[in-house]
Design a protein that fits this description.
1 helix, alpha+beta, about 60 residues, about 20% helix, globular
């Protein structure tokens, strides 16, 4: 199952396979001060605007099934 999040850079929807998530963390852009939740996967990082706890909860919930 793929989970949809909103990309922090483009504002477009990005689908993430939760099986391939390694970690989730928050990051603040030094230039703009914008905060993002970063989903680290086997193939790279995806910065999303979704709340950190909501993101982790959705990923955990999809893996529990």
């Amino acid at each position: 199952m793929l989970l949809n999040f909103t990309d922090a850079t483009t504002g477009q929807t990005v689908a993430v396979n939760p099986v391939h998530v390694i970690c989730v963390f928050t990051n603040t852009d030094e230039k703009t001060g914008a905060k993002a939740t970063v989903i680290n996967t086997l193939s790279g990082n995806v910065a999303v605007i979704d709340d950190y706890l909501e993101t982790v909860g959705r990923i955990n919930g999809s893996l529990a099934n």
